Amino acid sequence: MRVQPVLVYQIYKRRPQTSWRPWGGLFTETEVAEEKARIQDELAALDCAGPCGIEFLPLRTASTAEEAKTRGQGDHDVLLLYAATGPATWLESLTATNPWTILFVRHRSGPVYEWYEIVSPRFLRKTVDEWGENNISTADVVVDRSDELLLRLRALAGVKQTMGRKVVCIGGASGWGRGGRESPRLAREIWNMDLVDFTYDDLRTRMIAAKSSDALMRTARLRAADYLGEKNVKLECSRDAVENAFLLTDVFRAILREQRADAITVNNCMSTIMPIGETTACLTLSLLNDEGALAFCESDFAVIPSGILLNAISNMPVFLNDPTYPHDGLITLAHCTAPRRMDGQSAEPVRLLTHFESDYGAAPKVEMQLGHKVTNLIPDFSARRWVGFTGQIAANPFLPICRSQIDVGYNCGDERLAEEMRGFHWMTAYGDWNREVGYALRKAGITWLDLDRT
């Protein structure tokens, strides 16, 4: 994501017996030069701290009306506007063609900016009470804090990475339940996703060829042996099912390479894939998630966009799960495809069991870190309103349900959470990313409700 910073300022000349200067601390070229150096130093620090894939272009300045008309143009995704002084018309010229604009003003981080005073009444509201600015909202204004600027940049980078994402759909794209019937269409329309159908007949052909390859089978067995030999890995299902899962992983990797994609999902994964792979897809999807791909079961595009967005924002694996019913400050989240590297680095302990409903194949029961804060996203079926909250992992139970299970504690209240549940599947990741998600959803036209902050 390319970010174009622009410092907007005007040098004012003293005039006798009249108000000749506005609020602010930039009145000489020396002060402007010092401010440019300050901005460049701050952006250099952000470049080191921010997510990879964000590129800050050289700082531009706009100190005339003509410069304001041109400095916002060019090949960039985000306009980062340092609004020191200057008329509102200059800001309007800069933002007119930049729907992704962040407006930064100073209070205490340097010389105070004039627009710290008047950004709301003069620019956002055009000197009336009604809203008058199309491309900037209150959420796009940052005062002083680099961490708040980084939060918004991370969110926008997440939107950019989600928009147009290619997802390979084994068995086709789908959505859960009657409410999810339009989910593939909505994913294409709202997120411009490229949903590539890959038939089970084609997968069957690939698996037959893979099983007839001594080299591929030997590699799958060796990788399975290495995995089973790791610390904190316990085998409680057929070893053949694990080896077949590694073979299926190789086949999926090859499909992703050919499609030049890094996201895959499996439709009808509870029965259709079992005769083809002679295992379940559970462990395979877990392995791919740990490798940095995005791998989801059930091909449910009511929830998959939230997983792609949350992963892009957090740079961590995500856990697509079935929620239960909130009670006593707890809710159980479970599924059979959880990544082990939920923090993006270390592998959690895992028990390899059969897939619960079929009692077949290989499914990981990942023992996630107790006490760890997690973000939980609840997308609705219509892609109009998402809900989210943070919680803490309270337990890793072993109920007769999907194998990877966590009890999550929360503070938003049982009844409130129950009332706000939408769709079906949820998406979970380590950390607190709710504010970034909320900012990102504004750009996608989806309403956001953060239960932690309402």
What would you note in describing this structure?
This protein folds into 2 domains: 2-160, Rossmann fold; 163-450, L-fucose Isomerase, Chain A, domain 3 (Alpha-Beta Barrel), CATH 3.20.14. Helix content is 36%, strand content 23%. It is built from 14 helices and 20 strands. Helix 3 (88-95) links the parallel strand 4 (78-83) and strand 5 (101-105). The mean pLDDT is 96.
Gyration radius, rounded: 26 Å
Q: What is the percent of helical residues? A: 25-40%
Strand content: 15-25%
Principal-axis shape: elongated
Q: Runs with pLDDT <50, length 5+?
A: none
Major sheet details: 6 strands, parallel
Please, how many domains? 2
CATH topology of the largest domain: L-fucose Isomerase, Chain A, domain 3
**Structural class, from secondary structure content?**
alpha/beta
Mean pLDDT figure: 96
Going by CATH, the architecture of the largest domain would be Alpha-Beta Barrel
Please give the alpha-carbon distance between the first and last residues.
Answer: 31 Å
Instruction: Count the E strands.
Output: 20
What descriptors fit this protein?
single chain; 454 residues; alpha/beta; Rossmann fold; L-fucose Isomerase, Chain A, domain 3; 14 helices; 20 strands; 36% helix; 23% strand; elongated
Task: Reconstruct the topology from this structure.
Elements: E1 2-8, H1 29-49, E2 55-56, E3 60-62, H2 65-70, E4 78-83, H3 88-95, E5 101-105, H4 115-124, E6 141-143, H5 146-162, E7 166-170, H6 183-191, E8 194-198, H7 200-211, H8 214-228, E9 233-235, H9 239-259, E10 263-266, H10 273-277, H11 282-290, E11 294-297, H12 304-314, E12 319-323, E13 330-335, E14 350-355, E15 360-366, E16 373-378, E17 385-395, E18 404-409, H13 414-420, E19 426-430, H14 434-444, E20 447-450
Helix pairs in contact: 5-12, 5-14, 8-9, 9-11
